[in-house]
Amino acid sequence: MTTANDPWGRVDADGTVYVRTAEGERVIGSWAAGSPEEALVFYRRKFDALDTEVALIEQRITATEIAPGQAQATVQRLLGALADANCIGDLDSLRVRLEALTTAVDQRREEVRAAREHARQEAREIKERIVAEAEQIAAEATHWKASGERMTELLEEWKAAPHADRAVEAVLWKRLSAARNAFTKRRKAYFSSLEAERETVRIRKEKLVEEAEALADSTDWGPTTSAYRDLMRQWKEAGRAGRDAEAELWKRFRDAQDKFFAARTEVFAAKESELRSHAAVKEQLLTEAQALLPVTDLRTARTALRSIQERWEQAGSVPRDSREHLEGGLRRVEDAVRKAEETQWRRSNPEALARAEGTVAQLRAAITSLEAQLARARERDDQAGISKAEEALEARRSWLTEAERTLAEFSS
Question: Is the pTM above the cut of 0.70?
Answer without folding.
Answer: no
